[in-house]
Design goal:
Layout lengths: L2 H14 L9 H5 L8 H9 L4 H24 L3 H4 L3 E7 L4 E4 L7 H4 L2 H10 L12 E4 L11 E10 L2 E11 L29 E5 L2 E2 L1 H8 L5 H28 L2 H23 L5 E11 L4 E13 L2 E5 L15 H16 L8 H4 L2 E3 L17 H20 L18 E7 L5 E5 L33 H7 L2 E7 L17 E7 L4 E6 L37 E7 L1
Helix pairs in contact: 3-10, 4-9, 4-10, 8-9, 9-10, 11-13
Length: about 575
């Protein structure tokens, strides 16, 4: 080939065959049904002669995953990961999230199937990337799948004797994401996606189980806490490899067919069982509406509407009438909206079933485009969880109305407290280390009242009921602050015979650094974040209060004048 022919071929490929960028795939993100069985899955299921083997297989896989997540909690740097904002799971080769840990953030199992599907479609056969045993992939951009950008996914392919049989994923909420203005992961003041910090599409960051140090250095160069990123990339990889080693042992002891059959079986049986239980609900249309009152930049009322249309074993979720998307980071993508529906079913309705993508596959969705709960990929969304938590209150109310008439099954409960009035912080610590993160007070949210008793005090967040909120001594050791108190205060409830559980009250004082700042991320100052049920009152509003001390009262030296209270 001559030089001119080579040049012509180069420009032909550039213009016709190679996209400028591999952006989010709308077809992949729109998938929520389980992918059809493959021939390999049919062969694996046919090889299982005793159905009890599938139960044994699922038990083994769940034990492996639970052991790995407990290890990851111990070795991670993220405060959220230490106390429950994480998950470990296994995906089918086709990319459906098959089994997740019972603890952690269950809705991750309903949002991250897009990631391995994207890798398989775009990178597996790409000559400059490829897919092989020992490859390490990373992702955090919610437009490609997932919840919001602070939630980071590390994923590796699982091979057995040269055959690609599954994917293994580890996901952690990272408290610092490099946003240009706001520390701590939540980009409060972002008005476009370009102000939300680092956004990583699914990409290969390592081979032969070794992460490329230059790639991690690129990530670290964009964030305030490089040690956090280095530690947690390694902790996620260590956890995924622990799962891989034990699943290799399982396949050597039993067979790869049993693992493949177990994954497919649990997906299909979960979907079937959710549909069977829904069939017991009375047919009808059940509606609920919730309002959020703040964008964290200004007071602004926006509406979240839910309609559940139940016919036979088919339940359709609609969001018609919800407010349009806005130029604030509160927008959520449609796949996150489907995941928050799955979160309701996993955590509040059918918690006895395995956490799989089968939950959202069992339902139907009619989500109005262009709304704040179906935003496009150009909208900022790092605070989408606040909108989704408000939507969860409406979903909870509608589902409770639907299940109220189901005999011997339903025990109606008002919505849990769904917001995150937690400490957000960043700066130079007393150890002379740059640090930014969010604290875990949100993990002590109050549970909703039941028809015959009060709700649980400090029960847990709606997204991770099996979590904790840490120790005061740990915060004081890591951060330049003093914990003044944290407690469940007396009379911290609303009206009614049975009341929702009281959450916690806490106060911190900055101490030991003059270059450290506090913030808080929540709603509910004007409109209750939880609604009452069947004539009951909603939760009380919690307005933001700022107290400024006169200059003469402000301490100096190693102390500081800033306190935060919620």
């Amino acid at each position: 080939m001559t030089t001119s022919e080579s040049t012509e071929q180069f420009f032909t490929d550039l213009l016709n065959n190679q996209p400028v960028m591999y952006g989010p795939d709308p077809d992949i993100n729109a998938e929520y049904r389980l992918r059809p069985r493959t021939d390999r899955e049919d062969e694996a299921l046919a090889a299982i002669t005793d159905p009890a083997d599938l139960a044994v297989g699922l038990s083994r896989v769940e034990a492996v995953l639970q052991s790995s997540i407990e290890m990851m909690q111990q070795i991670s740097a993220s405060a959220a990961a230490k106390w429950g904002d994480l998950i470990v799971g296994i995906y089918t080769k086709e990319g459906d999230f098959a089994v997740a840990t019972s603890s952690g953030v269950n809705m991750f199992s309903a949002t991250t199937s897009s990631v391995p599907k994207f890798i398989a479609r775009y990178w597996a056969d790409e000559p400059t990337v490829g897919l092989a045993e020992g490859d390490v992939f990373y992702h955090n951009d919610a437009n490609y799948g997932g919840t919001h950008n602070p939630d980071h996914t590390l994923i590796i392919p699982l091979f057995w004797k040269g055959e690609h049989v599954a994917w293994i994923g580890a996901i952690i909420h990272e408290g610092e994401n490099g946003a240009a203005i706001d520390q701590g992961g939540f980009s409060v003041r972002a008005t476009t996606k370009y102000g939300e910090g680092i956004r990583i599409p699914p990409m290969k960051i390592g081979e032969n189980y070794i992460v490329r140090r230059d790639v991690v250095n690129l990530f670290q160069n964009q964030v305030r806490d490089p040690m956090l990123w280095l530690t947690d990339v390694r902790s996620k990889l260590a956890s995924a490899r622990a799962v891989e080693r034990r699943l290799h042992d399982f396949m050597a002891e039993r067979s790869p067919e049993l693992l493949i059959a177990t994954m497919r079986s649990v997906l299909e049986t979960t979907e079937t069982e959710v549909r069977r239980r829904i069939a017991a609900w009375p047919d009808g249309v059940y509606r609920a509406t919730h309002f959020a009152d703040n964008t964290l930049m200004e007071e602004r009322l926006f509406k979240l509407s839910v309609e559940m249309d139940k016919r036979g074993d088919k339940l359709t979720i609609r969001t018609k009438g919800s407010s349009p998307s806005i130029d604030r980071a509160l927008n959520a993508q449609a796949h996150f909206t489907r995941a928050i529906v799955g979160n309701l079913f996993m955590n509040f309705l059918y918690g006895d079933l395995p956490r799989t993508a089968g939950f959202i596959a069992a339902l139907d969705y009619d989500l109005e485009p262009g709304s704040i709960v179906t935003a496009n990929s150009e909208q900022p969304s790092s605070l989408s969880l606040l909108t989704m938590f408000s939507l969860s209150s409406a979903l909870h109310q509608a589902a409770t109305k639907a299940m109220f008439a189901v005999p011997d099954v339903a025990k109606p409960m008002a919505p849990w407290y769904p917001q995150v009035p937690t400490l957000q912080y960043g700066g130079l610590t007393q150890h002379m280390q740059m640090y930014a993160n969010v604290s875990t007070e949100m993990n002590a949210a109050g549970g909703g009242a039941l028809h015959d008793r009060d709700g649980e005090h400090a029960a847990g967040p709606i997204f991770a009921p099996v979590s904790d909120w840490g120790e005061m001594e740990g915060r004081e050791a890591e951060l330049p602050l003093l914990g003044l108190w944290r407690r469940i205060p007396a009379d911290n409830h609303g009206f009614g015979k049975f009341r929702g559980g009281a959450s916690v009250e806490w106060a911190y004082m900055l101490y030991g650094s003059q270059m450290f700042g506090f913030g808080i991320t929540s709603m509910g100052g004007r409109f209750p974040v939880t609604g009452g049920m069947f004539g009951g009152y909603g939760g009380s509003c919690t307005p933001l209060i700022r107290i400024s001390l006169p200059a003469a009262w402000r301490p100096c030296g190693s102390g500081c004048s800033t306190a935060a209270r919620a």
